[in-house]
Specification:
The protein is built from no helices and eight strands. It is mainly β.
Length: about 80
């Protein structure tokens, strides 16, 4: 079933500067990937809004600010099944 993702609540500890989020989506595991982003997750931001659809998603977080060690907790996503098969 396809799902719509409309946002993320990041959970970072010791975040210094912005973190970039890139999302890779596929309709099924062997399909060609579509890349969305990068989206900027600012320090102290509660939520980042975006809109995308897919069945399989991979999330990549990156950044270059110090300190290089930062805890990435359990990000919460806004995901709703769309009912498409």
């Amino acid at each position: 079933t396809w799902s719509q993702v409309s946002g993320i609540w990041p959970d970072f500890e010791d975040q210094q500067g912005d973190v970039s989020l890139t999302v890779t989506l596929k309709p099924y595991p062997q399909a060609t990937a579509r890349t969305k982003g990068p989206y900027t997750l600012s320090s102290g931001a509660n939520r980042k809004h975006f809109l995308m659809q897919g069945r399989v998603a991979a999330f990549e977080f990156s950044g270059s600010a110090a300190p290089t060690l930062m805890r990435i907790g359990k990000p919460v996503l806004d995901v709703v099944p769309t009912g498409q098969q």
